[in-house]
Amino acid sequence: MAAKINIIKNKILSDNWFVLRNYTYELEKADGSKVQHKREVYDRGNGATILLYNRAKNSVVLIRQFRMATYVNNNQDGMLLEACAGLLDDDSPEDCIRKEAVEETGYVVGEVEKLFEAYMSPGGVTELIHFFAAEYDDAQRSHTGGGVEDEDIEVLEIPYPQALEMIRDGRIKDGKTIMLLQHARLAGLLV
Ligand SMILES: Nc1nc2c(ncn2[C@@H]2O[C@H](COP(=O)(O)OP(=O)(O)O[C@H]3O[C@H](CO)[C@@H](O)[C@H](O)[C@@H]3O)[C@@H](O)[C@H]2O)c(=O)[nH]1
Ligand SMILES: [Mg+2]
C-alpha cells in the first residue's frame, strides 16, 4: 500500500559531496488523523558489500581503513575493520561489488551470490545496501589491493572463528560486516 503522504517542503541543507535535505510532510496515521513531521534525510546514494570467504581455510578477507565518522564518535584511532564495500555510483550492485573487490582487496571474484538488501540507518539515511558473498582463493589475487585515489586500505585474511570472537570483544563494530559474518554461520558457509 502506498504511503498517505503529502510533501509540503523539500529544503536542501547541504549539497557539497552528498545531499542533506529537510523534508516537511503531512502523514496520515493508521486511525485516519494527520500528523506533520520535519525530518532531516541524508542521501549518500546506495551501496554494495561482499563477504569474501574460503571454505578450505575457514577464513574471510576483511579490510581496515580510517572512517572519520567513527573517529568523531569514540573510535580512538578511527580505524574500522569492515567487509569490502563501495558506493554504487552508476553501476549495478553486482558490477559495483566486483569492481570494489578487486580495487580494495586485489581478489578477482568469480560467481557472486546475492544475499539480501538492507536499509542501514532508516531514521535519517536513505542508503540501501546490497549484500553479496563469494568464495576467494589465493590464485584469484591479482594484486595487494589497497583501494584507489586517496584510499589507504589494509587487507586482512582472518580465520572465521577469530572474526566471530572479534565481534564479541568489540574489535569488529561495523553493522554490514557483523551481518555478513553471522550470515556465514547461519548459511553454513563457514564453521
Ligand atoms: N572528497 C570527499 N570524498 C569523499 C567524501 N565521502 C566519501 N568520499 C570518498 O568517496 C569514496 C567512496 O569509496 P567507496 O569504497 O565507493 O565507498 P565506501 O566509503 O567504502 O562506502 C561503502 O561502505 C559504507 C560503509 O558501510 C557504506 O555506507 C556505503 O554504501 C558503501 O557500501 C572514497 O574514496 C572516499 O574517500 C566526502 O565527503 N568528500
Ligand atoms: Mg569502500
How does this structure look, described?
There is one protein chain. This protein is α+β, with helices and mostly antiparallel strands and 191 residues long. The chain has 4 helices and 10 strands. Strands 4, 5, 6, 7, 8, 9 and 10 form a 7-stranded mixed beta sheet that branches. Helices cover 20% and strands 39% of the residues. The radius of gyration is 19 Å and the shape is elongated. It has 2 domains: 5-43, no CATH class; 47-186, Nucleoside Triphosphate Pyrophosphohydrolase (Alpha-Beta Complex). The structure holds guanosine-5'-diphosphate-alpha-D-mannose and magnesium ion.
Entry summary:
The protein has 191 residues and is an alpha+beta fold. Helix content is 20%, strand content 39%.
Task: Present the secondary structure layout.
Elements: E1 5-14, E2 19-28, E3 34-43, E4 47-54, E5 59-66, H1 68-71, E6 79-82, E7 84-87, H2 93-105, E8 113-119, E9 128-135, E10 154-159, H3 160-168, H4 175-186
Parallel strand pairs: 4-9
Antiparallel strand pairs: 1-2, 2-3, 4-5, 4-7, 5-6, 5-10, 8-9
